[in-house]
Amino acid sequence: MAEKIERKYLAHYVDESFSGETPSYVRLGDDLEEYNEELNPDVEVKKNIKGEQTIDHKGYDVQSDVDPYYASEGSILWEKLAEIANERKTGAACKTTKVDVLLTESGSQVWAYREDVALIPNSIGGDTSGVQIPFTIYNLGNRVAGTFNTSTGVFTPTGSGT
Q: What is the pTM of this model?
């Protein structure tokens, strides 16, 4: 039986510059015990009078919850999320990109994908463990395969020649 891939090798990064001139990717997970990309497939199952079943799969409404997310002094992502929450920003102010990367134990890359997303804070406050601002990542599409350098934080789309 093949070895299970440890969860730590599936990494998730968000651009804390919020689509600035130069992306600045930060890895999620410091306080997370679990993180799932919920695909939320849009599927309609039909059965005709002959007893045959068909499936109409129209796509996905992908989202992920980052909860908890603690405030850290000097964190650009925390500052941006607090700005969005405190100023009740919407639309383009919440848009950025994320990169999901699967690595091997030796550090080589299995795959990487970048996608446009919106980061929407759900609350601000928390309990006595620290100031929290949990948020949801809503995938917006424009998913692109490529390579991601985990040392430099640079994503290169497949076929870009760079």
A: 0.91
Q: Which amino acid is at 12?
A: H
**What pLDDT was estimated at residue 45?**
96
pLDDT class of 160 with cuts at 50, 70, 90? low
| pLDDT tens column, 10-24 | 999 999 999 788 999
Q: Is 110 exposed, middle or buried (0-12, 13-18, 19+ CB in 10 A)?
A: exposed
pLDDT of 125-145, one tens digit each?
999 999 999 999 999 999 999
d(CA 138, CA 67): 14
Q: 3-state DSSP call for residue 29?
A: coil
> Could you tell me which residues come within 8 angstroms of residue 15 by beta carbon, excluding any fewer than 6 positions away?
23, 24, 25, 96, 97, 98
d(CA 16, CA 1): 40
Q: In angstroms, rounded to a whole number, what is the distance separating the alpha carbons of residues 30 and 27?
A: 8
Is residue 132 within 8 Å of residue 68, measured between CB atoms?
yes
Q: What is the DSSP string of 88-136?
A: T--GGGGEEEEEEEEE-TTS-EEEEEEEEEEEEE---B--TT--B--EE
